[in-house]
Design brief:
Elements (H helix, E strand, L loop, with lengths): L1 H10 L1 H28 L3 H25 L4 H12 L5 H20 L3 H36 L9 H55 L3 H25 L1
Helix pairs in contact: 1-2, 1-7, 2-6, 2-7, 3-4, 3-7, 4-5, 4-7, 5-7, 6-7
């Protein structure tokens, strides 16, 4: 097996190099997509309490600044779009989040997936094509050996037939991990969409609570206004007396 592989790499390098380049490219794309997915995630269990605290103290504007400074897709794109439309009500926030998910976040999550799937499909076909070409050359050599009456005949070309199958094997080795990775990425996108919908509904609830109970700064200003109004009320009462 090892000797046959060395022979395939050295003697039939014009088959080996294209398949090797496809494998390296595919590995780079998968690794790149994994890094993008890691940067897109946000621990919502930790982030939402922080967002709620900021929203209670600084209002919607402070919450938007916090979300815009995050790396994750949910706070940086989904929450920012929703908070930009918070003054127009919950329906406007839902529409903004739906548009952001469809037009921005989902396309970002699908980035690099089409090339990964394309390489997975093409690698198998290229491996099969190279095998067919190599088999044609091998059977042609067998025919010439038979016509010339050379010793060995078909048996002498058995090694070449084995080498021809290495191209198909390399194509499958490239395609199988890519198809597996593509399937996992697609499942991750569906799971992420559910997480976005859940997080969006929680954000709407937070905004509605803030509208019901104003931020701490506004609540602190109310007693001061009441204190200023007391002298005027006392004067009016004295005049009535």
């Amino acid at each position: 097996m090892q000797d046959a592989l060395k022979t395939f790499v050295t003697k039939e390098w014009y088959y080996f190099i294209p398949l090797l380049c496809m494998s390296i490219t595919a590995m780079c794309l998968v690794f790149w997509r994994i890094l993008l997915n890691m940067n897109a995630k946000t621990d919502m269990g930790k982030f939402l309490p922080i967002l709620q605290t900021i929203m209670q103290k600084e209002g919607v504007d402070g919450a938007r600044k916090l979300c815009a400074a995050q790396k994750g897709l949910i706070p940086r794109k989904l929450f920012v779009a929703a908070l930009d439309n918070a003054k127009q009500g919950a329906a406007a926030m839902r529409r903004a989040m739906a548009n952001t998910i469809e037009l921005e976040i989902v396309p970002d999550l699908h980035f690099l997936l089409p090339p990964i799937l394309a390489i997975a499909k093409v690698a198998t076909m290229i491996g099969l094509l190279l095998t067919v070409v190599s088999m044609i050359e091998t059977f042609t050599a067998i025919q010439k050996a038979t016509e010339s009456g050379a010793a060995g005949g078909a048996g002498s070309q058995a090694g070449s037939i084995g080498l021809a199958l290495f191209a198909t094997a390399m194509g499958l080795v490239t395609a199988i991990p890519l198809v597996f990775s593509y399937t996992l990425f697609k499942a991750g996108i569906e799971k992420f969409e559910l997480l976005m919908k859940s997080a969006g509904q929680k954000l709407i609830t937070l905004v509605q609570n803030v509208k019901t109970a104003p931020p701490a700064a506004a609540a602190g200003a109310a007693p001061a206004a009441a204190q200023k109004a007391q002298p005027a009320e006392a004067v009016a009462a004295a005049r009535r007396a």
